[in-house]
Automatic annotation (TrEMBL), chain B:
UniProt family annotation: Belongs to the ABC transporter superfamily. Glutathione importer (TC 3.A.1.5.11) family.
Organism: Paenirhodobacter populi
Main location class: membrane
Transmembrane segments: none
Swiss-Prot/TrEMBL catalytic activity: glutathione(out) + ATP + H2O = glutathione(in) + ADP + phosphate + H(+)
Keyword annotations of the record: ATP-binding, Cell inner membrane, Cell membrane, Hydrolase, Membrane, Nucleotide-binding, Repeat, Translocase, Transport
Protein name: Glutathione import ATP-binding protein GsiA
Pfam families membership: ABC_tran, oligo_HPY
Gene3D superfamilies in the record: P-loop containing nucleotide triphosphate hydrolases
GO molecular function: ATP binding; ATP hydrolysis activity
Region annotated Disordered, chain positions: 559-585
């Protein structure tokens, strides 16, 4: 049995032949179902992508304005309250958020579905309704992270000489804040959005288990229990590749924002 | 509407407090002054005098508590709302700042930033705004404005950026222009151009200018009237001629005594101490026996350093910065050789290459008997003892976490020059010698002022009994009076120990006082070298002449006649990879006074 | 390090978050250390008659599926969770500092080490730990190593950056000019001045490690259930969360509080050690 699966070969050799396969877009087969790993990943892709896309979009939409406003009114009531909320929500583990949210909004209040996933093909509204709770729990820490960086980056930018110049010109607050400051502050913000995707990937594994979403995260957890190495390897490789790709794209975005950066 | 004879700006009993960690601190303790229409008023003072706070308060750019009265153009400014203040900024009062490199938004095109300033106060379409912006760029004499409208700030040099800032300030046709140290960060030749421009535009536009500076030379050059500030108070206000000729306040007198005046050493051969303070302008006369027969302690031959510029994805070498090009000179014990030039000319790189903080590419350096560029290991450590450095920024040159005493003794002990007790004795002795109490050894750097830290850095350099001290802009960052004191200290120490100084500086007036010989650097090369009296008295290279004539002299009687120099862009020292430099040719115009001839043609047009 | 010797009361006034976080953390550590004094109950005592009971006077946090007292398990569980946090912070910080120093000082090593660090960083940290755990057995030591590895690159990059900029600092050049050797420069001049951000990041690593441990337990790749940790107590209760939420809720709450406390200490230290907070004046 072990021989047939190649498990008795030295680890380096196993890894080498797996890597060889990867270079030919062959991730191997599952030890459990004998299905090609690539096919399994393809089947489980939609829920994970949906969850992460919704989380990412809404997190950025919430976090950036909050961070900008907190920096503009530094030391004010809004700033102090959001700073406390940010450190708290950054500290709550994803599963704690997930279970608490599901218990309150699904079990007790019955406003939202408890668990499961509705494919996008069955309509945007049911798809979205089902994603609200998972995305909210996945996004809690991510929003806090982006808001904190946005605030810090804005504070630093608002301290720059060219902001003083803009004020000396007599420009209005809105123009100073959103054109002069936010654009200059955006490189660290964009960077953290990209780096934070790692957090989303790790969080997705947990969130999908909490909400029983049949995505890649749940497949990871299932495969660990079955000790299905080729699948785990394949998922780790797939996620890492996606993560690197996202951050490469972000590097290209820099050049649009900052004329001093050239590739 | 408003009375044209009434002052444009009238400040009465202005008090300003700024928030700090422990409550508010009062920075301005009630100042009064008037600024008339069509007038340039200089506000001069040393750091901490409150001159910049005054300017920023007038603009409403500080989170400060303000009391007193500020009347501008018939209107009281204290108590205006944020929005009223915003309306006033740019249109009534405009401002330019000290740091042209960071004062423009790096992500927006220069033309856009100008158009934005125009449209902030006046309704106009983009085409009109663009045409007006072009006019402004022409007005501040930016060459090729059509093309440069669409460039980003990082394509502009410091001087050009300051021109853009001025253009932007003119956009709202202000009645008052506040210029906060607008030329301090610029090279002296660029400074002369910008001062000229501000003066011309002031006349042309009929503005009043509030000119803030620490430089008495600039004051004498530009101001109709002068206000001297000290510790948040105005100690003296009057017409510039009178303030310079017959200062009333003790502080003004002390300040003027400490200021070096370029040209006042004409007729003297050797260095002389600054007057006024402790010494009385006595000439520096070598005392140490060693100096009766001076010997060569440093001999630099054909020194060369290039920095590679890598570009593209593969990091190919796309060009080289020729930072030092065939530099040769020598230094005797007890002598000061000044290495002067503007930023980027290679003077600091030369100092760092000699003390082996960077590795030179070619040439030779003989330092106190060591082949300095080729020694290594134990010999390198011995060589390092012979050459010590003093740096420009006194705040950065001491480790903030280590006590003064330990900083002083460290190198002495590491080099096993003596026991810890001997090290402490020597440190105490040197601290006394540089004018500090030996007890300071137990304290940390943050407890000292800039001038005191520079004294500590000098004591540290002397711990190893070096033969040569490379002083890289060692007094440039200090306030006028402190600068004079530290310069005097350096001369005292040379008299006593016979140390040779390689005195790297851009400050021609200090160099005139302190140096025996002068080497002028331009674009990596020495273009003129010789005895100080000869180089300053009969400058023979066009660049030296240009440099000397650009230095503002703190004497309103000697204000230069107005002439509008064309903007001069310093030659870039970047060359393509295969570039071979033609050999330099020196001509001896007088004994020991050499001039480089191949570089003269570059200055033909000026 | 004058900042460290400031009186405690002044720190508490200027950095209330730091003081509160440190107090909570101290309380949690004390409870874990003195667990036998806090509760006489054996955390491993199984009572099948008392399975999954809701909180009551006998069991203030209720019991788990095997009838074990949850309060006792959580108090004892703090020992493992907090130790993992501290151990990971120490290992990753020391290893990252060494790598960062070498990379900052040796050109050749820099290229190699930093490419490896980039490689490690390209794998999302939880997945890296999951993958490493899948390859090994679920022992406590392996969990610590797996979480540490993903924490190393951040510290290494930070230290390398500090080394590269401090090497060029004027005061370091002055010391080099005095003939002082590289070793002394690193340990006396560079490391002490680079310490503040390293310490701050070590606290964040500690918080992240406690979280990662719980995540690993949650997906079945964590510490063995024989020794209680906040993570594995919760993982055991998760199948019953809809009907018996207290089994998940209490360990999750304590874990959140602990992570929050560590993060508050980190933020407080960051503000306190920030060089821009007026060292010059």
């Amino acid at each position: 049995m072990r021989h047939a699966l190649g498990l008795d070969r030295p680890f380096a050799l196993q890894f080498g032949s797996w890597l060889w396969g990867v270079l030919h877009f062959d991730l191997g087969n599952s030890l459990f179902s004998n299905m090609p790993v690539a096919t399994m990943i393809g089947q489980r892709l939609e829920p994970t992508l949906s969850l992460m896309a919704v989380t990412l979009v809404f997190s950025v939409l919430i976090a950036v304005p909050v961070g900008v406003w907190a920096a503009w009114r530094k030391g004010g009531g809004f700033d102090r309250v959001t700073t406390v909320i940010a450190v708290v929500s950054f500290s709550i583990p994803v599963f704690a958020c997930g279970y608490a949210g599901a218990w309150l909004f699904a079990l007790k209040l019955g406003w939202l579905p408890v668990q499961g996933y509705t494919p996008l093909s069955e309509g945007i509204v049911p798809w979205f309704r089902q994603l609200i709770l998972p995305a909210a729990s996945l996004g809690t820490a991510y929003v806090a992270l982006i808001a904190r960086i946005t605030r810090a980056s804005m504070l630093e930018t608002l301290d720059q000489d060219y902001i003083r110049t803009a004020r000396a010109k007599g420009l209005g607050d809105g123009r100073i804040l959103f054109l002069h400051a936010l654009k200059n502050a955006s490189v660290p913000i964009i960077t953290i959005i990209g780096i934070g995707v790692a957090m989303l990937i790790g969080g997705a594994v947990v969130t999908e288990s909490v909400f029983v979403i049949p995505g890649l995260g749940r497949l990871t957890a299932e495969s660990i229990l079955r000790r299905d190495f080729p699948v785990i390897q394949g998922i780790v490789l797939f996620f890492s590749f996606s993560y690197v790709l996202v951050n490469l794209l972000i590097d290209l975005v820099y050049a649009f924002v900052d004329p001093r950066i050239r590739y | 509407m408003t009375d044209q004879n009434e002052p444009l700006l009238s400040v009465r009993n202005l008090r300003v407090s700024l928030p700090t960690e422990d409550g508010a601190a009062e920075i301005l303790h009630g100042i009064d002054f008037d600024l008339n229409r069509n007038e340039i008023l200089a506000v001069v003072g040393e750091s901490g005098s409150g001159k910049s706070v005054t300017a920023l308060t007038l603009m409403g750019l500080l989170p400060a508590r303000v009391s007193g009265s500020v009347r501008f153009d018939g209107r009281e400014l204290t108590g205006l709302t944020r929005e009223e203040m915003r309306q006033l900024r740019g249109r009534g009062i405009a401002m330019i700042f000290q740091e042209p490199m960071t004062s423009l938004n790096p992500l927006l095109k220069v033309g856009y930033q100008l158009e934005e300033a125009l449209r902030a106060h006046e309704r106009m379409d983009r085409r009109t705004a663009r045409a007006r912006a072009l006019d402004l760029m022409r007005k501040v004499r930016i060459p090729d404005p059509e093309r440069r409208m669409d460039s980003y700030p990082h394509h502009f040099s410091g001087g050009m950026r300051q021109r853009v800032m001025i253009a932007m300030a003119l956009a709202g046709r202000p009645k008052l222009l506040i210029a906060d140290e607008p030329t301090t960060a610029l090279d002296v030749t660029i400074q002369a151009e910008i001062l000229e421009l501000i003066r011309d535009l002031q006349r042309l536009e009929g503005m009043a200018v509030l000119f803030i500076t620490h430089d008495m030379g600039v004051v004498a050059e530009i101001a109709d009237r002068t206000m001297v500030m000290y510790h948040g108070r105005a100690v003296e206000t009057g017409p510039t001629d009178e303030v310079f000729a017959a200062p009333k306040a003790d502080y003004t007198r002390a300040l003027l005594d400490a200021v070096p005046r370029l040209g006042e050493m004409a007729g003297h051969d050797g260095p002389q101490r600054f007057r006024g303070l402790a010494g009385t302008g006595t000439p520096v006369a070598p005392r140490s026996a060693d100096l009766k027969k001076p010997q060569t302690v440093l001999d630099v031959r054909h020194l060369q350093k290039r920095f590679e510029i890598k570009g593209g994805i593969f990091g190919r070498v796309t060009g080289r910065v020729h930072a030092i090009e065939d530099v040769s000179f020598s230094l005797m014990s007890g002598e000061t050789l000044a290495l002067v030039g503007e930023s980027g000319c290679g003077k600091s790189t030369t100092g760092r290459a000699i003390s082996r903080l960077i590795e030179a590419d070619g040439g030779s350096v003989m330092l106190d008997g060591f082949d300095a560029l080729n020694v290594s290991g134990a010999d390198l450590r011995r060589m390092r003892r012979s050459v010590q450095m003093i740096f420009q920024d006194p705040y950065a040159s001491l480790n903030p976490r280590i006590r003064i005493g330990a900083s002083l003794c460290e190198a002495y002990l590491v080099n096993r020059l003596g026991s810890p007790a001997e090290a402490q004795d020597k440190a105490a002795h040197l601290l006394t010698k540089v004018g500090l109490n030996p007890d300071v050894a137990r304290r940390f750097p943050h407890e000292f002022s800039g001038g005191q830290r520079q004294r500590i850095a000098i004591a540290r350099a002397l711990m190893l009994d070096p033969r040569v001290i490379v002083a890289d802009e060692a007094v440039s960052a200090l306030d006028v009076s402190v600068k004079a004191q530290v310069s005097n200290l350096l001369m005292d120490l040379q008299e006593e120990t016979g140390v040779g100084y390689l005195f790297i500086s851009h400050d021609m007036a200090v160099v005139e006082r302190i140096a025996h010989r002068v080497a002028v650097m331009y674009s990596g090369r020495i273009v003129e070298i010789g005895p100080r009296a000869a180089v300053f008295g009969t400058p023979s290279h066009p660049y030296t002449r240009r440099l000397l004539s650009a230095v503002p002299v703190p004497d309103p009687a000697r204000r230069r006649a107005a002439h509008a120099p064309a903007p001069f862009e310093t030659r870039s020292p970047i060359r393509p990879p295969g570039h071979v430099t033609p050999p330099l040719r020196y001509r001896e115009v007088a004994p020991g006074h050499l001039v480089e001839e191949t570089s003269m043609s570059e200055f033909a047009r000026t | 390090m004058a900042a460290i010797t400031l009186p405690m009361r002044r720190i508490a006034r200027r950095h209330p978050g730091l003081a509160l976080g440190a107090a909570i953390l101290a309380a949690l550590c004390l409870l874990a250390l003195c667990a036998p004094l806090v509760t006489p109950v054996d955390p491993g005592f199984v009572d099948m008659s008392q399975r999954a009971k809701a909180p009551s006077w006998d069991h203030i946090f209720g019991t788990d599926m095997l009838g074990r007292d949850l309060f006792a398990r959580i108090i004892y569980g703090g020992r493992l969770s907090l130790s993992i946090g501290v151990a990971v912070a120490l290992i990753a910080t020391v290893a990252g500092t060494v790598i960062g120093l070498v990379a900052g000082y040796v050109r050749l090593a820099d290229a190699i080490l930093m490419r490896i660090m980039d490689g490690v960083m390209s794998i999302p940290s939880v997945l890296l730990a999951v993958a490493l755990m899948a390859l090994s057995t679920g022992s406590i030591g392996n969990v610590i190593v797996a979480i540490s590895i993903s924490g190393i690159p951040r510290i290494a990059r930070l230290v390398r950056g500090s080394v590269l900029s401090l090497r060029e600092a004027v005061f370091v050049e002055a010391v080099i000019g005095g003939g002082v050797g590289t070793g002394r420069i690193i340990f006396r001049h560079i490391l002490p001045n680079a310490a503040a951000p390293i310490i701050v990041n070590a606290t964040y690593l500690c918080a992240g490690a406690m979280l990662s441990e719980a995540v690993l337990c949650f997906i079945g790749a964590g510490t063995p259930p024989t020794v209680p940790s906040w993570g594995n107590i919760m993982a055991e209760g998760r199948t019953l969360w809809m009907v018996k939420p207290h089994i998940v809720a209490f360990p999750a709450l304590i874990l959140s509080i602990a992570i929050l406390a560590v993060n508050m200490v980190g933020d407080g230290l960051r503000d306190m050690l920030d060089p821009r907070a007026g060292r010059r004046n």
